[in-house]
Design brief:
1 helix; 11% helix
């Protein structure tokens, strides 16, 4: 009894690994974010194709039950690259060339600058100068404590 149950479970688990062909139902991972395949919204639709990691060849996927998506954005923003006038907003009118011009504006100039604070005046030698301190003489490194090393002996005759 237990052996046949284990064999049935094992057969059911390995059969899903062999299922690579046929069709798939597309379920989006995040709600509200469509899955677009060749310009068609394939969310919750059936997709038939022979592509994947187990196949060397691929065919163009066919989407059954999807809805086509417009290639241009359908939002309330104005994109000048689309070549259409905006749906709402300020209407720009080019004025004629022979119109009366307004008075020119008065000239305006402003500048900024940065500078260091001035140095204090140099004082003379103080009345009570500090005593002069002489530095000790340095005659080279001291020998290390311990026995004095002997010079090497020559090995010749």
């Amino acid at each position: 009894m237990r052996g046949s149950l284990a064999l049935t479970i094992l057969a059911a688990m390995t059969s899903t690994a062999l299922a690579g062909g046929g069709f798939d139902i597309v379920v989006p991972n995040r709600p509200g974010v469509p899955i677009i395949i060749n310009g068609v919204d394939a969310s919750y639709a059936v997709v038939e194709s022979a592509m994947g990691l187990a196949r060397n060849d691929s065919m163009v996927p066919t989407v059954y039950g999807g809805r086509p998506i417009a290639p241009e954005p359908n939002v309330g923003h104005y994109y000048p690259s689309l070549g259409r006038m905006p749906g709402y907003g300020r209407l720009e009118i080019e004025p004629p060339a022979n119109r009366r011009l307004p008075q020119p504006a008065e000239s305006y100039h402003e500048s900024w600058g940065a500078q260091s604070a001035p140095l204090p005046a140099q004082s003379s030698v103080p009345v009570d100068p500090p005593p002069v301190i002489y530095a000790p003489q340095f005659n080279g490194p001291r020998p290390l404590p311990g026995p004095v090393p002997r010079p090497p002996r020559s090995r010749g005759p």
